[in-house]
Task: structure prediction
Amino acid sequence: MTTTMLYTKINNLPPSKKKEVDDFIEFLKTKQKKTKIKERKFGCGKGLIIMHSDFDAPLEDFKDHM
Result:
């Protein structure tokens, strides 16, 4: 659909429907802003995850299965 065709369709609507189209366009613009992905920098999560020294140690709960 070309811009001219879209303009013609909108132009033929009653004023109340034109307002609905305008509201929907604003909604789409807002939605588009929210979907932009922020650029992440390498190392931004440093220090957020801690691995304990006994991470690989057997768990007491599985003692019967080993």
About this structure: Residues 3 and 9 are 10 Å apart (CA to CA).
